[in-house]
Amino acid sequence: MKCLSYEEKGTWVYLVTSAGAYAVYLAIILGRVAGTPVADAPYVAVLLWTAGASIVASIAGRTLVMAMAKVDYFWIANVIYLGFVLWAVAGSVLKLVAYRRGL
Predict the structure, then answer these.
(1) Which of 2, 27, 40, 48 is deepest in the core (most CB within 10 A)?
(2) Global confidence as pTM
């Protein structure tokens, strides 16, 4: 079996976490439809939570991959911090957009 590079392992983690989060999102939204038009289903909170969970799972997966690959702790810590910053920026932007649109 071929040994996967760090980037390829990270891509697999990203693929699995994002696809899994979207499957959960669809299951929840389709469960809420029940006789109402799909466009009227409340989706904002579910979308934000599943997107956030996907980001966190992806970061955790990549960091565990980095730890298993025995990457220096400096890089692991910085990837975790970068993930936190990206999450904070994305969350803040989404909240500001929601406030401006009255959601």
Answers:
(1) 48
(2) 0.61
Nearest to 87 by CA among 52, 57, 61, 36: 52
Number of residues assigned to the chain: 103
Q: Is 42 left (phi over 0), alpha (psi -120 to 50) or beta?
A: beta
Joined tokens for residue 28: 């929840």
Q: What is the residue extent of each domain of the chain? A: 6-101
Contact 12, 4 (CB under 8 A): yes
pLDDT at 1 over 60: no
Nearest to 95 by CA among 51, 33, 30, 40: 51
Distance CA 32, CA 28 (A): 6
Q: What phi and psi values does residue 35 have, to the nearest 5 degrees?
A: 85, 0
